[in-house]
Amino acid sequence: MSNMKEIKGHIQSVRDTQKITNAMYLISSNKLRKIKKELDKTKPYFEEVALSIRRIFKSAKNVKSRYFYPEGNTYEIEGTYGYLVITADKGLAGAYNQNVIKEASKLMTKKHDKLLFVVGEYGRRYFTQKNIPIEKTFLYTAQNPTLTRAREISNLLLSLYDEKKLSKIYIIFTDYESGMESKVKVLRLLPFNHSDFKMSKTERDEEQKSSRNFVWPKGEIEFHPNAQEALDNMISSYVTGIVYGALVDSFCSEQNARMNAMESANRNAEELIGNLTIEYNHTRQAAITQEITEVSAGARAKKKHKNQMKTT
Question: Which of 39, 218, 242, 255 could form a disulfide with 32 if both were Cys (CB 3.0 to 4.6 A apart)?
Fold first, then answer.
C-alpha cells in the first residue's frame, strides 16, 4: 500500500491535470461559438449564389458547362482524381482525425491516378509516414478557417480542373450535424450534377411569394455575355463556399470532439480523485490505528514493568 505522502502527491497531480483539461474544454467551447457566428454571417451569401445558379437552369434551356455532368448522367470519368482531406493540426480530440483518415484511405484505394491535398498537420504527418505523396499541404488552415484560405484552396483546385489535370474532385471532412454527433462525409466537389441545383418546394414557394410584389420584365431573362459565362463565373464563388463550409464544419467537429474528450477526462479525473481520497483516508486511518495500538502496547508494557518492580 502506498504511503500518505505518495497518495497526496498523486491526488495533486491529477488535480493539476484536471485544470489543463478544464482550460482546454473552455478554449474549444469559445472557439466553437466564434466560428459558428462567422459562418452565420457568410452563409446567406453562398445560399444566394446557389439560388442564382438554380435560376439560371430554370430560365435558360440547354445550358452546358464544363463544371457539370451532362444532364441525367453521372458516369465514371477517366483521368486524375483530386482528394482534399481535412484533418486537425492537433490531437486530443478523440477519434476525430482517425475517422477522416480511415475514410480517405478507403476512398483512395480505387485504381486511378490521384492527387492528394491535405489540410491539417495530423493528416500531413500520417500520409508522409505512409509514403503517400502529397500534392499540396495547406498550413494553419485547420486552426483558422477563413474565406481567404478557402478561396486559396478553391482557386487551386479549380485551376487544376480547368487545365484538365483533375477530372473529379472529392472533399473528405467531418460534417458537424449537431452538438451531439459528427460524421465523416465524402462530398464530390466537381463536377456537379444538374439535380444538385433543383429548387426545393420551400424555395419555389418563397420565390412565388416574392414575385407577387415584383413586376417581372416580359420575355426571357437575358444573361451577359451569355448564360454559360454567367454560370461559370458563379461556380468559383460557389466552390469557395463549399470549401469554406467544409473547413468550418471540420473545425466545429474538432472542437466538439475535443470538448467531449476533455469532459470525459474530467469525469475520469473526478473518479480517480474519489478513489485516491478513499485510499488516502484508509491509509490515514490505518496509520492512526497503528499509532494508537503502539501507544497502547507501550502503556501496557510500561504498566506491567512497573507492577513487576513493585513485587520485587
Answer: 255
Q: Round to whole Å and give the CA distance between 36 and 255.
A: 11
Residue 137 pLDDT greater than 80, yes or no: yes
Q: Residue 1 in 3-state DSSP?
A: coil
Beta-bridge partners for 119: 86, 138
Q: Facing residues of 188 across strands?
A: 170
What integer pLDDT is reported at residue 159 of this predicted model?
92
Place of cell 450535424: 177
The better pLDDT of the pair 230, 166 is held by: 166
The 3 state secondary structure assigned to 66-103 is CCECCCCCCCCCCCCEEEEEECCCCCCCCCHHHHHHHH
Q: How far apart are CA 258 and CA 266, in angstroms?
A: 12
Q: What is the pLDDT of residues 68-77, one digit of tens each?
A: 877 666 667 7
- Give strand pairing partners of 182: 176
Q: H or E segment at 296?
A: helix 227-311
Give the separation between CA 281 and CA 292, rounded to whole angstroms.
16
Cis peptide upstream of residue 145 (ω within 30 degrees of 0): no
Amino acid at 295: V
Mean pLDDT of the chain: 79
Burial code (b: 16+ CB inside 10 Å, e: under 16) for 30-53 equals ebbeebeeebeebeeebeebbeeb
Stretch 146-166: mean pLDDT:
91
pTM (predicted TM-score): 0.76
Which DSSP letter does residue 192 get? B
pLDDT in tens, 199-229: 666 655 665 555 555 444 444 567 667 777 7
Domains annotated for the chain, with CATH where assigned, are 35-210+220-256 (3.40.1380.10)
